[in-house]
Write the structure tokens for this entry.
Amino acid sequence: MSHGDEVLFEVEDSIGILTLNHPPENYLSRPEFIPPSLFDAWMDNSSLKGLIISGAGKNFSAGGSLEQIFTEHDDRSRLPALMDNGQELLRKIGGLEIPVIAAINRVCFGGGLEIALACHFRIASENALLAFPEIHQNLMPGMGGTCRLPSAIGIFQSARMIMGGDMISAFDAKTIGLIDHIAPKDQAFAFAWSLMQKMTHDRPVKVIRYIMKALKNATELSPEEAMRE
């Protein structure tokens, strides 16, 4: 299945594989890179145990194509509404009650990094580079990255990344807690697949979803409330 050929979706061994399919950079032509209703339809699968998000070819995603976004939407005043649509999609990804892994090879910039931050786990190849370069266009992450990044790495490191706009290596990203594991060169997807299989293979779907819901509650509710849910 696909959405405008820019995003592909398939299910293998009860694992969903969502591929950003605009190589080589896998630019996003719009913040809402999948219509939420279509994403809901893809996820409406009672046998689905997990989701891996990756990029076609060498890179994860270089982020939003500002030129294309502004060409298709020449009224820049509409940009906040477009970002709201993108935020809604990423909330849906982060709210899934199945494990979601971002498999990051090479470039992961801007909107691509926002997608990765919406995932529950981030695996990056040793040759990956991550950045929020929006500051160089006098912009800032607009799909929730300013909220998710401090939750992952703290305000100080977040300010350095967002206001500095510099690329960081996978090793630096691991040091500050931005990613969870480093995979061999260009092998992020293989590593993510192995990890997903370890977590989900031969596990009942109901148990997987209960665990993910409990972990989600632990981050959003008080300990007392989380244990009552």
The chain has a mean pLDDT of 91. The chain is about 45% helix and 20% strand. The longest strand covers residues 7-12.
